[in-house]
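Predict structure. Chain length: 94.
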Amino acid sequence: METMKPMISIEYCPRCGWLLRAAYMAQELLTTFTDDVGGVTLIPSEKSGTYVVCINGVPVFDRKIKGHFPEPKELKQLVRDIISPMKNLGHSDR
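Prediction complete.
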């Protein structure tokens, strides 16, 4: 039986204009983790100011808690550490 690949979700505030930011980050994650994830889902939030990245429903980054948006490098490292700890991220590891 094949195990399911992790699913990433990015919940964002459409009223804040964060769709493009979420889409860009989804593209970065899909490009980096092509063989490691089952997909990235974008979820428009009903709550103002929301920008939360989850893996299988478990938050790994919340803008309100961290106080900033994640840089691609930071988010890739967080995701890698959970889904594929041995993966080399190349320039994102430096």
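Summary: The CA atoms of residues 29 and 60 lie 13 Å apart.
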